[in-house]
Each structure stands twice: as structure tokens, then as C-alpha cells.
Design brief:
single chain, mainly alpha, 9 helices, 2 strands, globular, disordered N terminus
Amino acid sequence: MKVANMMHLMTLAALSGCATAGNPDPLEQVNRKTFAFNQKLDDVVLKPVAKGYQKVVPGTVRQSVRNFYANPRDLLSAISSFLQGRQIDGASDLMRFATNSTIGVLGLFDVATPLGFEKHNEDLGQALGYWGMGSGAYIVWPIFGPSSLRDTTTLVSNLVVTPQALVSDNSLYYSLTALQITNARSDQLTTSEILDDISIDQYLFVRDAYLRYRESLVHNGNLPADPDFE
């Protein structure tokens, strides 16, 4: 139920029309408004909270929090790798998930990497891209930020497997969600400050960087000369 609203938004985006060649952003007018909303929310709430959090929470603790929330995504990475015919990578991520979920105490500690189980960071959007699905329309979701029609599947799948999705108590759910957002935002403080200092159209910069980055992931770093963002 907690991902129902996101699924509804995804359906609306699909009905709004896909990107045409040379125009990956047919929803730009709406996206810019959402981008501005996200920027304001970040300036007023997320960034100040993240700065305070970073000052009082030790780096080792933040790393464990990061590991905890990233752990279920290794399972999704394994599934994505298997869908792309990369059985060795999939097996490695599956072993990462099993090892860190048990020996690593629910993923708080990364004991899999020293044991040789490499992390691959695959996702459903990459698997769909591997099988020929274009990125579709660029979408800026409220709070979640940049995505595309194809990569919204990654967003939804991540929400389904996030640790708080397993709890029934609403107060605990929202507390875990707030911790996840705050910890993730604290990791991006330096990057966002650099972006704030650049006198450019930040919307276009983020959009183009995101689309290029995602296509790079789909093609394993070997981008075609003229990427097609359809």
C-alpha cells in the first residue's frame, strides 16, 4: 500500500506520452516546477537537517546506516544481473545479500566485500535497457528527484524492498524513512554545494547528467556516439 501512490504517478506519466527522438523531456514544464519544489524543500528542510546530522553522527555510524539501507538493493542487483545473463555477477550480489544480512547483522556491516563478493549496483531499469527499452520521458518526481519512465521501475522496486516496507507500525516506518533520507542527503552535501556555486541552468545540468549517467550504466560505460533517450 505504501507504494500505491508511486505506482499511480507512474501510470499517469506513461499516459502523458513518451519522449520523441531528440526530445527526452516532453514533460519539461511540469518537471521544472517539481524541480523547483524539490530545491525549495531541500534548502528549507533537508539540507539543514543533513548538516546537523553530519555534525553529530560519527562517520562510522553513518556508514553502517548506509549499508543497512543498501543491503536489500543487492538482492535487486542480483535479479537484474540474472535478467541480463550475467550469472556470475548475480551470484556475487546474491551472496552479498545473504552474507551481510546474517553475519553482517541485517546489513549494518559489509563483511561480504572482504570475502570477495563484489557489489555490482544493477537495477531493473538497467535490465530493461539491456533488453532494448528506451528511457522514455524524463521525469522529476517530488522528493525522489530525477528519473525516467523506464527508471521509475527502479524507484518503485527500491521502495518495495526498503527495510521499512517490512514494518507495520506507521511511526517506525516514517522514522526509518526519515533516517534513510537524512543519511543519504548528508552523503551529498559536498556535491550539492558545488552545484549551487555553478551559474548555469541547474535543471538542464541535472537532467542531462542524469540521462547520460543512466545510459552509461545500461551500456556498461560504452555509450553510443549518439545516445537515444527514447
